[in-house]
């Protein structure tokens, strides 16, 4: 049986999607959490100076999207052919475009610039992207692609809590189909067990 060790900060962030996918697929994993004060000591030991990393039988994987895609393929949450995988990958690429705006807001240190970015994200970026995502979910039987559950549904839902913490608003609740998808993912028994036992963190 393979061994899994996930290393990330003591936060949900971009690693929560991986944790949910591992839980959904029934894979036991070590959830290694690094405090920010210890990060500089560990940074040089990672392939590209970034987290998360997932070790499977001591083989190191990196880049959260690639990891989620791999776990999805291993758990029958990918497409059956190249065309179907394209539908999922298009959603992932659109989400990465959206997430860049959220990350820029999170790391902005100048108070005035942060306030300006926050207004832009809330008034323009979120309505633009989440509005389109919501419509796509409605058109796909309650999912992001192919009319069925895929790894990207976990990818989006896993990051959605961090998204709401960064913008300081329950934005997903403003979009009924996104809200329902998130509830459906959270209600999956194996995911629910993870949610109950995971550490409580702000992000």
Automatic annotation (TrEMBL):
One of its GO terms (molecular function) is glutathione transferase activity. It holds the Pfam family GST_N. Gene3D superfamilies: 1.20.1050.10, Glutaredoxin. It comes from the Eukaryota. It catalyses: RX + glutathione = an S-substituted glutathione + a halide anion + H(+). One of its GO terms (biological process) is glutathione metabolic process. It is an enzyme of class 2 (transferase). Its EC number is 2.5.1.18. Coiled coil: none annotated. Keywords: Transferase. PANTHER family: GLUTATHIONE S-TRANSFERASE (PTHR11571), HEMATOPOIETIC PROSTAGLANDIN D SYNTHASE (PTHR11571:SF224). Belongs to the GST superfamily. Sigma family. This is glutathione transferase.
């Amino acid at each position: 049986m393979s061994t899994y060790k996930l290393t990330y900060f003591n936060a949900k962030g971009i690693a929560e999607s991986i944790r949910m996918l591992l839980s959904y697929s029934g894979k036991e994993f070590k959830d290694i959490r690094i405090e920010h004060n210890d990060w500089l000591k560990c940074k040089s030991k990672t392939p590209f100076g970034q987290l998360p990393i997932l070790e499977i039988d001591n083989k190191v994987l990196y880049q959260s999207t690639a990891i989620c895609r791999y776990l999805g393929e291993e758990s029958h949450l990918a497409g059956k052919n190249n065309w179907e995988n394209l539908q999922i990958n298009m959603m992932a690429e659109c989400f990465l475009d959206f997430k860049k705006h959220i990350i820029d807001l999170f790391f902005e240190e100048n108070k005035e610039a942060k306030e300006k970015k926050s207004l832009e994200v809330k008034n323009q970026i979120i309505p633009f992207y989440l509005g389109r995502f919501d419509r796509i979910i409605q058109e796909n039987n309650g999912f992001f692609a192919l009319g069925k559950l895929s790894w990207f549904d976990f990818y989006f839902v896993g990051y959605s809590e961090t998204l709401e913490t960064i913008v300081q608003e329950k934005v997903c609740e403003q979009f009924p189909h996104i809200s329902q998808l998130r509830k459906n993912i959270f209600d999956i028994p194996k995911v629910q067990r993870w949610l109950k036992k995971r550490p409580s963190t702000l992000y």
